[in-house]
Amino acid sequence: METRTRSIVKAISWQLIGLVTMTLLAFLATGNWGSAGGLALGAAGTGFVCFILHERLWAHIRWGRN
Q1: Is 61 helix (H, G, I), strand (E, B) or coil?
Q2: Which of 9, 19, 25, 60 could pair with 44 in a Cys bridge, judged by C-beta atoms 3.0 to 4.6 Å apart?
Q3: Beta carbons within 8 Å of 18's beta carbon, 6+ residues apart
Q4: Torsion angle, CA of 30/18/21/39, rounded to 10 degrees?
Q5: pLDDT tens digits along 13-48
């Protein structure tokens, strides 16, 4: 089982990648950096929480472990 700190660091690094990607995609869709940043931050915040919950849930499931 991994520590909560490891789960959080993994979530942060993944969300940084997602934040950059989402900002670029949202800019292409809107043509506005402010709107793109707002959309990306909203998606990153939601994704961050969902990722941590998902990781912590799976940490308690024994299925598929050796």
Answers
A1: coil
A2: 19
A3: 43, 44, 47
A4: 10
A5: 987 898 899 999 999 999 999 999 999 999 888 888
